[in-house]
Amino acid sequence: MKLRALLQDVETNSFYIATQEVTNITDDINKVRHSGVFVCISGSHTDGHSFAHKALEKGAVAVICEREMQCDGCIVVEDSRKAYATICANFYGNCHKKMSMIGITGTNGKTTTSYILKKLLEDGGYRVGLIGTVNVIIGNEQYPADLTTPNPADLHRYLMMMSIAGCDVCIMEASSQALSQMRVYGIDFRIGVFTNLSPEHLDYHKTMDAYADAKAVLMKNSSVCVVNEDDGFSEKLKESAKGKIVTYAIKNKADITAHNIRQTADGVSYSLKIGDEAYNINFDSMGIFSVYNSMAALAVSEIMGVDTGRAIRSLSRFDGISGRMEKVQNSFGINVIIDFAHTPASLENAITTLKSVYNGKIITVFGCGGDRDKSKRELMGKIACENSDTVFITSDNPRTEKPEEIINDITKDLSCKNYFKITDRTLAIKSALYSARAGDTVLIAGKGHEKYQIIGTQKIYYNEREIIKKLLEDKARF
Predict the structure, then answer these.
(1) Is residue 358 in a domain?
(2) Among 34, 151, 345, 378, which has the minimal tally of Cβ within 10 Å of its Cβ?
């Protein structure tokens, strides 16, 4: 693509040779190629402007930057992040304009809601691509996800692949960091969904209001906004909506409501009311959050024109998602549950759900990630200990922090004494499984679908399902 076409809709007063061919775009100096374009992004740890000259030495035909770098090929723009998103969209054919874009944002529930919605829409006749925390799905192909919402180069490449595959809908999780960092800048969403907001990522956003403001970016760029009316930040999100608003709720008045909710170990059932119509819902997923997630998905499918009866039948056949209240079968009569719960709200929801549907003891294994929001550590320790019979506090992606120090943060000022500190996650899981008896429940929280531990800066293979299976096999030999 010619540089002129690449920079369409990007404002710049810099002089540049418009006829040069561009072969790739990146903000990573290690990925700069001959005839590529390097975008200088100022981040929290590094400033891409310091690599401008190096990018040109590696063969880049242009460097996009926010200030003059005193070098040929420097193109100055007001906002590098916005420019990056725009030129990536141009480079990959602006394929977001060829599909119905559906964005889902919120602290919890994004992944589950997106997968439910994917099934409802596909059963309703749509061809759907998905971008999210677990993976990227395009047709029959799946690709690993490094970020919940990819950087603009990867994002628009995926959208192009979806367009080629014949997708007419893209469902994507929109993280607060991605929204604030302009990764989805320039994309007009047909529908934006807000699930909920609770403390998370405050190391990045600093305050809950700033966190909510980031989420509200999706509402500002969506033609229809689907909002959880029961959430304390719903008014703030609705104030940001530019188009039609559709609300759903269990406790408050809303366009779509749930009544007569029943929770069991096999799932939830409830009466769904849309306008004057009522429908019986059966969903094989535990917890009140499953009611909210399914309602959000049903609301979107209704907006997309899927027959309500068909959508409800599809919901009843939903198979669940890896690492979301996932049951691990065993011969000991122990309820072993793997869940991605890694925030105070999601951990509390998971434990209280298990307490409501199972009668035995609740044994919880969890940790907190290193180099991330430290303010939630003590709160999660309090939630786990107050709602569980026994807690094993361990490692969960310690990154460059010492696991022992993270665990000490979690247990700081804890008044309850029903916890054990075990740095080795496998040993912590083993201790939990071996202490459990028939009828007890072991919740292994934090990693969910992940198949790795991040120790230092290295991603090390770590598959909890394989580990649990081996530990249970060993237990059977005793």
Answers:
(1) yes
(2) 34
Q: What is the dihedral of CA 86, 90, 92, 96, to 10 degrees?
A: 70
Structure tokens at 368: 């907190």
- pLDDT (tens digit, 9 = 90+) per residue, 420-439? 999 999 999 999 999 999 99
Q: Which of 91, 112, 130 is the last residue of a domain?
A: 91
Say if residues 58 and 32 touch (Cβ distance below 8 Å).
Answer: yes
Q: Which residues of the chain have pLDDT under 50?
A: none
Range of the domain at 345: 326-477
Q: Token pair 């119905």 is at which residue?
A: 100
Task: Tell me which of 56, 91, 126 is where a domain ends.
Answer: 91
Look at the block and give the residue holding tokens 């061809």: 127
Residue 66: per-residue pLDDT: 96
State residue 216's pLDDT score: 97
